[in-house]
Amino acid sequence: MTKKALVFISNGSEEIEAVATIDVLRRAEIDVDVVSIEANGHDAVKCSRNVYVVPDKSLDDIKNNQYDCVVIPGGNEGSKAMAANAQVGQILTKHYQDGKVVAAICAGPRAFLSHKIGIDHKHTITCYPTVRKEFTDGEPYKLDAPDHLVCHSTYTENGAEGKVYHLVTSQGPATTMLFALKLIELLKGQDEATKVKDGLLV
To answer: Is this model's pTM higher than 0.90 or not?
Structure first.
């Protein structure tokens, strides 16, 4: 069965993190929906460095969709918008509770904190260095070591046989390839991630 991913975008999203993640996931033949959170959800969004990205769908288009992975890119203003958007929070919460992969990069983990994603599960996260000060280590997330560029944190409910909850985080534009490759590994396995990695010359 084809794996499906949702990548949110908004005005102020970091374009490298958004577009590179979309591109790398699609190289693994993952079906990616690029979804604008803006009110005019089918119009191009203006990213943080004035690059325009045209979404595939609006929030209303996907409100009943189920994905294997949901991604929050960074960008200072974009991540703040996602942290403040109730529909984004509902989608993150549903997919996290269903055991799907929920991921954020750079300033994107702000949305996890705002929407209380996995706060009872003692997850470890990473983020953009200047955003770390917005988090208190251990409350509710433990902050990973700064030299760990991608962090995959899991919580298993009721021991080894229980449901597994996933948070994947990364630090910024230059770590986007590694971030996206980790998502491929989780969705389609190490062999597929290695195949894409080799093709990208990473």
So the answer is: yes
